[in-house]
Each structure stands twice: as C-alpha cells, then as structure tokens.
C-alpha cells in the first residue's frame, strides 16, 4: 500500500474526509518514520514503522492513555492505532507551541503530581520497549528485586553477549547486583513513571504547556525517573525546583543517582555501541 493511501485511509477512519493539503517528514527519532499531516480540518502527527514489532504501537498508546488518565500532565491525544503484518502507526494530535517562563515550572510540578499516582506493585503487567529493546516486566513487591531482575540483569546479559563487557566487568556487575540494597530503598512508592524521560521526550504546546511523548511506562521509584532527566540534559532549572516543592528528593538521592543512570547507559550501550562503555565502566567501578 502506498503511503498516500495509508494517510488517507487513516484520516477517513477518524472522520476526516477533507483534502490532505500537505505531508511533511519530521524528526521522529531513530526507529520510526514521522510525518506532519495537514488537512483542511487540522494538523496531525503520524509515527509510522514498517514491520513493527508486535504490539509496539499498542504499548505506546496504552502508556500515553495511562498518563492522560492521571489528569496531571498533558500528552498528545491518540486518534488511531493500526498494526498489521506489514506496518504499524499511531495517528496523534500535532503539538506545537513556544516555551514561556512558566513551562519548566509546569513540567516539574505536573510530573511530580503524576509520580504521586501509584500502582499495585513495582514493574508493569506487560513487556514494553525502550527504543528497539524489549523490556521484560512483571510486578514485584520489592523495588530492588524489580530493578535487578527486570532492568539491570537483561541489559548486562545483552551487553556481555554483544561482547561489550569484559569478563572482569561482568563479574563486577554481578557483585553490584548482589549489593543493590546498600544504595537503593526496597520500599519506595510505586510511582507511575514515564520510563524514558530524556529531553527529547517532552514538547511544548500552546500557551507554553508541556507535553510528555514516547512513554515506556512502569511503576517504580520516582528518583529513577529524575536520575535519567539529569543524564543528558534538556530540563531547565525551574523544572527541578518545582518538582522538589511537590515531591522532594531524598537526602540519599545523590548516592543512588549514578546507579539509576547505569540502566539507561546500558540501554544506550546495547542500542548504539561502545561509545557508552566508558560511562558504564566508570559507574560500575565507583560502586564496586
């Protein structure tokens, strides 16, 4: 099926039979095609992928709707999801706007309010994706057990299988896994987390309102999320100030921040290669 036909069929399925005035490829990340569709009625954003993994877009839609249902922070509305043997897509609201002097504050406060929404345990009921990597999930009563078994262990095993880790570093990682309780609290709140919150996964809409996009949701320690926001930048000072006013970080946050960032560095190592190996090794050496 031609892309023009896919666009037309998707729009017609949501009741927009008007003429497509323009289709513009836009930046949409490393693994999906992305388009701005402008019709006589309105503008839309489409994420499209050939041969998408099973439930890839379904999981993203569930994540966006889970965040939306908290009534705390904005996400784009999903108008249509399609997944078949050949391709998949999400047709969503187009978000565009300029930041104001309140945008960072709103992002921090609203994210903290989202983190106050809790789940039945640590983890998630479905396996999810971060980039192209499948993340195994289950619910645990103990945050440390979840972080070890469902987050760190699979990434360490993958990195070793890919020959990114020496046997010496692999053994140090195993010792680190055995000692997580020295730095990580077992019984933090099981907060709803976006799960992949770097600076490219939030946008500014009309009136400076911040929106979250591309979630990989789970329930976990809220400081896990904040640690990732600090890894690659993209969040203003006002964000952290407002967040702490609503949901203060613990005094021990600084001791575990790098340990939380380690997971995301392993993900980047496994996705993009040895550029991230030095950072991974440095953190492992710091704790062990």
Description:
The chain is of the alpha+beta class and 288 residues long. Helices cover 41% and strands 19% of the residues. The protein is built from nine helices and 13 strands. It has helices at 3-13, 56-68, 103-115, 143-161, 167-178, 222-229, 237-246, 253-272, 277-287, and strands at residues 20-25, 33-39, 43-50, 78-83, 87-93, 122-123, 128-130, 133-135, 139-140, 191-193, 202-204, 210-212, 218-220. The chain has a five-stranded antiparallel β-sheet, with helices on both faces. It has a two-stranded antiparallel sheet with strand order 6-9. The protein has a two-stranded antiparallel sheet with strand order 7-8. Helix 3 runs parallel beside helix 7 (237-246), helix 4 packs parallel to helix 8 (253-272) and helix 5 packs across helix 9 (277-287). The chain starts with a helix and ends with a helix. The model has no long low-confidence stretch (mean pLDDT 95).
């Amino acid at each position: 099926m031609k892309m023009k036909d896919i666009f037309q069929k998707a729009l017609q399925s949501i009741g927009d039979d008007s003429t497509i005035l323009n289709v513009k490829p836009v930046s949409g990340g490393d693994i999906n095609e992305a388009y701005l569709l402008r019709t006589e009625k309105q503008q839309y954003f489409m994420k499209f992928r050939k041969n998408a993994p099973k439930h890839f877009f379904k999981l993203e839609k569930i994540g966006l709707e889970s965040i939306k249902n908290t009534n705390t922070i904005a996400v784009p509305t999903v108008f249509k999801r399609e997944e078949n043997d050949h391709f998949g897509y999400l047709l969503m609201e187009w978000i565009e706007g300029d930041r104001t002097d309140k945008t960072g504050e709103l992002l921090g406060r609203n994210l903290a309010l989202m983190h106050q929404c809790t789940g039945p345990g640590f983890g998630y009921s479905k396996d999810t994706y971060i980039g192209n990597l499948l993340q195994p999930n289950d619910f645990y009563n103990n945050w440390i057990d979840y972080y070890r078994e469902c987050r760190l262990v699979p990434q360490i095993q993958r990195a070793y299988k890919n020959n990114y880790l020496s046997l010496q570093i692999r053994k140090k990682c195993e010792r680190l896994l055995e000692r997580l309780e020295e730095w990580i609290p077992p019984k933090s709140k099981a907060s709803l987390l976006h799960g992949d919150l770097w600076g490219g996964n939030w946008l500014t809409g009309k009136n400076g309102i911040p929106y979250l996009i591309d979630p990989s949701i789970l329930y976990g320690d809220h400081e896990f999320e904040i640690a990732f926001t600090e890894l690659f930048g993209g969040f203003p000072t006002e964000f952290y100030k407002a967040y702490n006013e609503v949901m203060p970080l613990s005094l021990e946050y600084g001791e575990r921040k790098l340990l939380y960032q380690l997971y995301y560095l392993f993900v980047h190592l496994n996705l993009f290669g040895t550029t991230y190996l030095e950072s991974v090794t440095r953190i492992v050496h710091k704790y062990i």
